[in-house]
Design a protein that fits this description.
The complex is a heterodimer.
Chain A: H1 16-32, E1 47-48, E2 59-65, E3 68-73, H2 76-89, H3 96-103, H4 115-119, H5 123-128, H6 143-159, E4 164-169, H7 175-187, E5 192-199
Parallel strand pairs in A: 1-5, 2-4, 4-5
Antiparallel strand pairs in A: 2-3
Helix pairs in contact in A: 2-3, 2-6
Chain B: H1 29-48, E1 52-57, E2 76-81, E3 86-91, E4 102-105, H2 111-127, E5 132-137, H3 143-155, E6 161-163, H4 168-176
Parallel strand pairs in B: 2-5, 5-6
Antiparallel strand pairs in B: 2-3, 3-4
Classes of the chains: A alpha/beta, B alpha/beta.
């Protein structure tokens, strides 16, 4: 019997197109990925079952760890406007270099009087300095209050939106620190804010 | 022509050195593998890192606003947060609690949720309305306790809750049970 002749084909496939697609996607993901912001202090955030994600913009984060508070707000323009507002409030002028440094600053963790010296440092120097946190006193010297207020004004001005405030606290943080921040926020009638948590499954 | 003779041997004879025609194809399989591995890595790291935010609404602190309604004590459950991730709860008023204050451990145990569900059922049966929960964190409690309680309330779908300042009487109660 005549056997059907199966022609032997090469098993090698042309990978060029696949490679193109793969690298295109890779480039897209690398470019769209946001670099992870290094927290000034390590925080172990508590877990909850909340699934609502934090918005991409128009929010401000108050990092709370070791009894210190760090203030940051999303968006370079909002940040610049916030700094100008703070400057006007405390009669300070910032040079363009300092403004530029502030726009790339992750979080403010010093009192306004020492802010200038922090802005004039190089990023490497800044990482080595232990920041003392924004002063949050119940007396007149509540700089966090002013930061939040100016950030809210700035966001209104730049994006015409209401700034959302999120608290990112360390699990082991004692409650009085949190209570102080909540009080500060409530003083300017911010009664609704977010608590940043990591995701956890519901225990049945 | 400038060509590199790689044929090795010294071929004798006047003929042109025959260059071997090599395929220009490179095996891209390994490269594609690598690319997809990186893609997977980037997808996973970007989407899983998104922070979640639990909404917290505080009662309005404005003194001018006096339209607050008195809360019936039979519908009120108070949770006091003490040290070591422990909490104490009771129904009604601290001086005259309707149930004996019970100590629960937060975190892994489900005591708190069971208590919430059970009391809510009772309140619902008695008054037809939902239970009101007052969370009172003491100075010795930690942030994680507060988040855990708020999360428990979210899980049991409690709508009426508030974080309120603790009173000296309640601190005494916590001290009595060695939670302060």
């Amino acid at each position: 019997m005549a056997r059907a002749k199966v022609s032997r084909k090469s098993t090698a496939i042309d990978m060029t197109a696949m490679c193109d697609v793969a690298f295109l996607l890779l480039t897209f993901f690398i470019l769209s990925a946001k670099p992870k912001v290094q927290d000034p202090l390590p925080t172990d955030i508590p877990a909850s079952t909340t699934i609502e994600a934090l918005p991409e913009s128009d929010f401000s984060t108050l990092l709370v760890a070791q009894g210190k508070v760090f203030f940051s707000v999303e968006g370079a323009e909002v940040r610049l406007e916030t700094l100008r507002g703070m400057g006007a409030q405390y009669n300070m002028t910032f040079t363009p270099e300092e403004e530029k440094a502030f726009m790339s600053l992750d979080a403010v963790g010093v009192s306004i009087v020492s802010l200038k010296s922090v802005l004039n440092m190089t990023p490497a120097e800044r990482a080595g300095v232990l920041q003392s946190g924004v002063p949050v006193d119940t007396t007149d010297n509540n700089e966090l209050y002013q930061w939040v207020k100016n950030a809210r004004k700035a966001d209104k001005l730049v994006h015409q939106k209401e700034l959302r405030i999120a608290i990112k606290g360390d699990s082991k943080e004692e409650y009085p620190t949190i209570a102080k921040i909540i009080k500060t926020l409530q003083k300017q009638e911010v009664n609704k804010f977010g608590l940043i948590t990591s995701l956890r499954a519901v225990q049945k | 022509m400038a060509e590199l003779d790689t044929s090795g041997g010294g071929k004798k004879g006047g003929g042109k050195p025959k260059t071997k025609k090599q395929s220009t194809r490179v095996d891209l399989t390994a490269m594609v593998d690598l690319a997809f591995l990186l893609i997977t890595f980037f997808i996973l790291t970007t989407t899983l890192q998104k922070p979640k935010a639990m909404d917290l609404t505080m009662p309005d602190k404005d003194e001018k606003n006096n339209n607050q309604l008195p809360v019936p004590e039979t519908r009120t459950m108070t949770i006091l947060l003490g040290k070591d991730n422990k909490a104490e709860w009771y129904m009604g008023l601290p001086q005259n609690p309707l149930t004996a204050p019970a100590v629960v451990t937060l975190g892994k145990s489900k005591q708190m949720r069971e208590a919430l569900i059970e009391q809510n059922k009772k309140v619902l049966a008695a008054s037809g309305k939902e239970m009101i929960v007052l969370v009172k964190p003491s100075d010795k409690s930690t942030y994680v306790d507060m988040v855990t309680i708020m999360d428990e309330l979210n899980i049991v779908a409690n709508q009426q809750r508030a974080i309120v300042d603790i009173t000296p009487m309640e601190i005494e109660l916590l001290k009595r049970d060695n939670l302060y």
